[in-house]
Amino acid sequence: PQEVTAVASDLKTAVDNNAKVVHVLATGGHTDYRRTYVLTDKGLVYACGHAGSELTSGDHGTNLGYFVSDNADQTVFNQCTMVTDLLTSNEKIVSLWSTGGESNTNYVITDGGDANQPRVLSWGHNGQNQLGRGISTTANATSSTMGNWVPGEVEFQTFGDMERMTTSGTTINDITGTMYSSNFNNKHKFGRPVAVVSNKQQNTDACMVVIIDDLGQLYVGGDNEDHAMVNYPEFDDDSRYNGTSSSAERFVPVWQQPEPITDLCFNSYGNGNCAWTALGASGTVYTGGEGQYGTLGLGGMRSTTDEIPYNTGGFHPLAIST
Fold first, then answer.
1. In this structure, are residues 292 and 303 in contact, taking their beta carbons and an 8 Å threshold?
2. Does 262 or 307 have the greater pLDDT score?
3. Half-sphere exposure of 285 (CA within 13 A, CB side)
4. From CA 312, how far away is CA 322, in angstroms rounded?
5. I need a labelling partner for 198 at 20 to 30 A (CA). Which of 25, 26, 208, 302 fits?
6. 62, 155, 223, 272 from 105: Cα distances, Å
7. How many CA atoms within 13 Å lie on the side-chain side of 31?
8. Distance between CA 303 and CA 255 in Å, rounded?
9. Closest Cα partner for 222 from 193, 252, 194, 192?
10. Is the predicted pLDDT of residue 82 greater than 80, yes or no?
11. Which of 247, 29, 74, 59 is nearest to 148 (CA)?
12. Is residue 249 pLDDT above 80, yes or no?
C-alpha cells in the first residue's frame, strides 16, 4: 500500500487545504474498466482510472466525471469538475454511490445547500436508462465532447392516473420533473434521499436502480428485466412502463411496496437476472424478483420463471429460520 494523498493531484491539493477523505468507492467488472472515486468532507468527488473505450466512440471521461481528450487512463485523482459545476450555493455532496460493473453509472446525494433541497445527481453509462433523466441511451461522445451522459440531476415520473389511461395507452395527469419541480406541488411528497442501490456486471446487462428516501419510499429507474418490483406499471402489463418497455426513463415511486423500506440490496445482475432483499421499518425482511438458484429463500423457487407475483407488489415477507 502507498499513500495516494501524498501524490501530486487534485486530491492532494484538497487534503493540503484540510479536506478529509470520508469515502472511497471502486468499480470495475473487467480488467479494462476499473475506476476509483473519493469523496471528501468538503463535499467534492475525485476520480482516477479508466477514461473510456468500452463505448464505440469512447466516453472521454463520461464515467469519471471530467473530460479526457485522448481517452487515456488517469493515473492520479482529478476533481470531477462536471459534477462540481452542478452544485448550487453552499451545496455539498454527502454520499457517493455506483452501479458498479465494467461500465458504471454513478450517483451522489447532496445536502441541498442554502435551499435545503437535497438532490440526486447522476452520470456515466445510460444503456438501460439508469441515469434516470429521460435522455438518450446513446453516448454520442466525440474527441471534443462527452456527449449525452454527462452529470445532471435525476428526474421523477408518476405516470398520472393510470387507471384512467386512454384507449391508446396514454396516461392522464402524468407528472415529470426534478424532485423540487413545481409540477409536484400538492401532488407528491418527497423525503430526503438517503441511498441509491443497484448492481451490474457487463454494460449490456439490465440495470435497475432504486433510490430510498427517509420516509422509506422507494423510487425505481432503469431496466427491470421483466421482474416486477411493482412501481406504477402500465395499466395492462405489470412489468412495463411505456408501451412494451421494461425500462423506466425516470425514477418512479413504488406504490405497492408493503411498508416503508429502510434498506435494500440486489444479488448479481449477470445475464439479466434480478433478485433483491429489502428490510421494512417493522423489521420484516422481504425478497423479490426472480428465484434462480433459490436466491429468494422461499423454498422450492429455483428457476428464472419463479418470481414474486404482481398482486403482492413484487415483495414477499421472508420467514428466516435458524
1. yes
2. 262
3. 10
4. 26
5. 302
6. 9, 15, 13, 17
7. 0
8. 27
9. 252
10. yes
11. 59
12. yes
Alpha carbon distance 153, 132 (integer Å): 9
Distance CA 267, CA 172 (A): 35
Structure confidence at residue 302 (pLDDT): 63
Q: Residue 196 corresponds to which cell in the numbers above? A: 441509491
Highest mean pLDDT among 104-108, 145-149, 266-270: 104-108
Nearby residues of 199 by Cβ (< 8 Å), 6 or more positions away = 99, 100, 101, 265, 266, 267, 268, 269
Tell me the pTM.
0.92
Judged by DSSP in three states, 143 sits in coil
Q: Give burial (CB, 10 Å; 0-12/13-18/19+) of 148.
A: middle
H or E element in which residue 40 lies: strand 35-40
Cell of 45: 468527488
Q: Residue for cell digits 465532447?
A: 145
Q: Is 15 helix (H, G, I), strand (E, B) or coil?
A: helix
Among 140-154, 243-257, 273-287, 307-321, the range scoring the smallest mean pLDDT is 307-321
How many Cβ atoms from other residues are within 10 Å of residue 15's Cβ? 20
What are residue 106's DSSP bridge partners? 98, 123
Count, residues in the chain? 322
Contact criterion met (CB below 8 Å) for 192 and 118 = yes
Torsion of the alpha carbons at 266, 270, 274 and 277, rounded to the nearest 10 = -20
pLDDT of 1 strictly over 70: yes
